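Re: your question from the hallway

Yes, I did run it. Sequences:
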Amino acid sequence: MTTPAEAVPEVRKDGSQHKQKQMIADHFSRLARAPRTGDKCVYTFVPGNLTELLLSFDLLPVLPEINALQSGMRGKSREYISLAEKQGHSEDVCTYVKCDLGMMKSGNVGPTGEKIPDPDLLLLSYTGCFTFMKWFEILRQEYGAPVAMLHVPYQGDGEITAAMRDYVVEQLRRNVIPALERVSGKSYDEDRLSELLARSARAEDDLVWVLESAKNRPSPIDAYFGGVYYIGPIFTAFRGTDEAIDYYRELRAEVEQRLADGRGPLAPDGEIEERFRLVVEGPPNWTSFREFWRMFADEGAVVVASSYTKVGGVYDTGFRHDPARPLESLADYCMGCYTNLNLPRRVELLSRYVVDYGADGLLVNSVKSCNSFSAGQLMILREVENRTGAPGGFIESDLVDPRYFAASNIKNRLESYLQMIDQKRQAGGTA
Amino acid sequence: MKYTVGIDLGSTTTKAVVLGDGGEILGRGITNSRSNYAVACEVALVEALIAARFGLVERAMAGLEADESIRRAWLEQLQEGLRLGQYRAQLDSLGAVLAREARGSGLEAGVREIMDALGAEAPQLYGPGTARQSDFFRDLSGSRYRHFASIAASGAPGLFDPLVGLFDKSILEVENSPAAGEFSSLVRAALAGLDGVPGALRGAVEEAAAVPLELAVSVGTGYGRATLPFPKEQIRSEILCHGLGAHAMFPRTRTVLDIGGQDTKAIQVDPQGIVTSFQMNDRCAAGCGRYLGYIADEMNLGLHELGPLAQQATRTVRINSTCTVFAGAELRERLSLGERREDILAGLHRAVVLRAMALLARSGGVADEFTFTGGVAKNPAAVEALRQLTAENYDGPTLNISPDSIYTGALGAALFARRDWQRSLN
Amino acid sequence: MTGELELVVAEAEELFRDLRLGAVRRWKEETGGLAVGYMPIYVPLELFHAQGVMPVGIFGGGDQLEIIRGDAYYQSYICHIPRSTIELGLNGAFDCLDGMVFPAICDVVRNLSGMWKLQFPDRLVRYLDVPQNFDPEVGGRFYRAELESLAAELAARGAASYDASRLRESIAVYNELRGRVRDLYDLRRREPWKVPTHELYVLLRASVVQPVEASIRLLDRYREAALAADERRPMDQARVLVTGSFCEQPPLGLIRTLERSGCYVVDDDFVQIHRWMECDLPTGGDPLASLVDAFLADSVASPVRYIGEETKGRALLERVERSGAEGVLFCAPSFCDPALLDQPMIVAAVEAAGIPWTAFKYAENNGQFQVIREQAGTFSDSIKLWSD
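Structure:
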């Protein structure tokens, strides 16, 4: 059993991690002050988030997924989920939703101990996840707040067509922007949006550099457990801000230094000595995040690339927010998020990661909550194995439901998988 | 002689395989798993070493001028005598704990009466050709204890439950205490109990007892692997051990299926027995051996009776759920609909094998040759269903099942131990 | 006439049970046309029909299909219909299909479209993204582009090119079918003993695996025979509305169980495609615009659709009112995101309206109904008790 205090990784941290934590804490404080300052809050989702657009109206984003995962890390999710289930929410469905509802019913107290204000608007950016739509229908019923719906079409054929882009841009113009104008009392200012987007692109450049640093041996970063910290600012409330630019510049310098020193990534218990290089598909478990990471770190397994760090935007294939075509590039951003990619594209991306990052194989962490990720993962695994020749591994857990984190089961499979890789290497004489 | 050992700590049984310095199997040992893993492993090892010594006795008995059947008969008498000695020693420990626990409870006389009866009947439980319900002390002494407890309580039925309660409490301490089992003293006592022992046999026993057996390396694996009483570097994944063990038993093995009590594993190995891919069942134990256990309980049958009964089916009822939670309900509903028990059982076995087929497909399919291990491999109806489904879906690969398949993981672990040992020598 | 009734139902049941799609194979041999499968919920059947393509409803494998390979593709916490669909795809049942269309139901079906692309790279595989924005200038424009691209894709595979006058004709044909289905639902609403749901259900299932013209004839024969079945007398049963079963379908045994437990099903969302739009579509004008407008304005309030500013549950309450249902059965497949995420909101509305309800889950291959029998029996008894 982990206690809530243990569940939050805070033993050994990089400077960037402290900065990140401070940024997020400041954001929550700003949210808590909103009822007094008169700032308006817009609830929205990580995939397909329109942070620059919100910031251009001086609106504060609230991300219920992040709140849910924070609740998971703080050891609160069991109680929240159970509360939602008692109120009739099915045991079969997404635990982020139930955790969020349980938190709301328990006073909506965020990770800093302050109450998160009610939404002034629910910006339903319906991107890559069916559950999002239901989630905000439920929240609309709970809060009585207005909803602005942005339907982001799926890349069923693996591409973004002009019709798809027009559809998103038209929704932004006709539905989303007017809703934001109503709630903020301000007019849409495209120049301001463009400035924000230009800043986004700068931070994105540094983020991509950091993620790609894992191509080095040893990798200076862990692109999954460490990666979730790196993506924090840009996936949440900070894309388009100077703070994000600073954070990613600092992070990059930190990683450059580690690279120059030939050092591996920093895990909660210290630096990892790289023995295995893995690509991981699927979100992590949050309730036992540290224990989960330790299982990898203890074996010298470093994650060199992951799909989860692309859930709020795929930047390493060239996309950047573009100040010259603000709404179009927001549309492309939304449609390009990882879970909005069809399965053949996911297979291509993961196969390329295995090859480009010199990984020993692809490991899938299949979470019960998230069908957008999980449905088809077994096939993805087999396809990537076939294409790369690197062996695949499969473990199962959940996002924030501690009932679905069976530590010994996961450890057993993970170690079996790593030992298999090791045995293969020894047989191949490359150990 | 230096030996290496592999120990497989399973959810129900713990197995040990001892290899000689030439890599040959010297002995196998098995015991019931218990809360103290270290003791379970030690008992399994002691059993395997006793078996190893008997192997040496058997070899040394080649000098005994008698034909094969007579040599076998002597060996069997000796083994049974040794088992009796072990049983009695454990009864003594049990008696001591029971006496202590019973103190002041008013059950002292009852306990004494039962223990006396257990001691008195012990020789009848052992001997050439006797069939015991179990070789595990907990099971054997438990069932006999209950038998005599019911006699002791025949005049006062209220005594039975407290008496059994005492046993349940005491057996934990007895079986979690370090194993007593030194071969030479046990075998000498056994010899003393036999009449007309030929001198050559006595010599063979002394010779075998005198061989120094020295542990080189041990490797552990199994369900309780995370808490195995071995240093980390001496632990190997059960997947790897099963793969290598199956390869050792059937060198042409390319696919291994293991259906145990708690989990099911589908493993692909290369021509050297190296695992190339594997899949395990998810958290729930649907479709594992445990499921058949529930069914057996529900039908009031022994686990071993299920398969043969299912083979008498005239048709196979379609069972769509192998959920252990719903097993009983599904069974009762089928029975209430007038389905024959045999036909339902045939369907249940097929359902279990279908679950395994899904894992096999996930791991990469079924290649020739195909080795089936684990407790369910002993079930003829499951084997038949597996044979049929693999024939229909994978061009009928050769299906291997070893009578020693329960030792597959331990054998693989022993082979890993041997590799580690050889590496350390170089 | 009873003989005819049994004959029609038997004919429908045979079509429904025929997972190898014999009627589709026969139609293809006769006409040489293309056949394209579609997953449940809504696809524009008229468009396929107009291009000479037979749309074939793929509603899972039911309780008769043994899953041998399908489970290798899915974790235990995912619903059953994609397993059986994959199983049928792999075992050759769909060899007669030239393609598959996956409508926007949920993430599982959406991802299945990609799996299908990987598994059957030579076939037409299409994810049909229907708009969740119902502004004709926004969602309407997008949907029209989707339909045009679907039409072009079908033509590229050898179907007839898109032709407006043919689409108008096809809309008329499907109006006929929709009308027949509507009539039977009306009849069942008025005299549920005349149209048992287990019969109506197999007729609907048959209607998605044979040519539309044949479906119309079958429904006509059934209606005539059912109206004449005077020996079918009303019984003291509770009138219930069943909701939640719009994608993975309940096994027929479950529907029979509900009826035997004392329930008349007077409205449901089984095989909803012919009732997706409650009105006939215009047979004149720009037919693509008719399809688009009808989708935007007249679609049912399915959990797979965003309902905008409407009140959650209002549509269901209206259906309860119209059907004269005395209670609501929430009957959803296990792990069905759309149904199960929607349910608490709808339950709240139903409860606020004082309508009795109960809920249970199923999988398409369930074989045991004891619990449901008891639950539905208790439910219908309590309704009858209250109404007395």
